[in-house]
Amino acid sequence: MITPGMYSAAKGMLGYIEQNDVIANNIANVNTTGFKKSSLIFKNLYNNMIEQTDRMQNPKHRQSEIVGEISMGAGVQQLVHEFSQGNLLKTDNPLDLAIQGDGFFKLQTPTGEIAYTRNGSFMINNKHQLVNEEGDLVLDTLDKPIVINLNELQMRSFKDINITDNGQIEINHEGNKQVLQTIAIRDFQDKEFMQWNGHSKFIPQDLTYNPELKAEKFSIQQGSIETSNTNLVNEMIGMINVSRGYETLSKFMKEQSSMLSTAINVGKPKF
Question: Are strands 185-187 and 194-196 parallel, antiparallel or unpaired?
Answer without folding.
Answer: unpaired
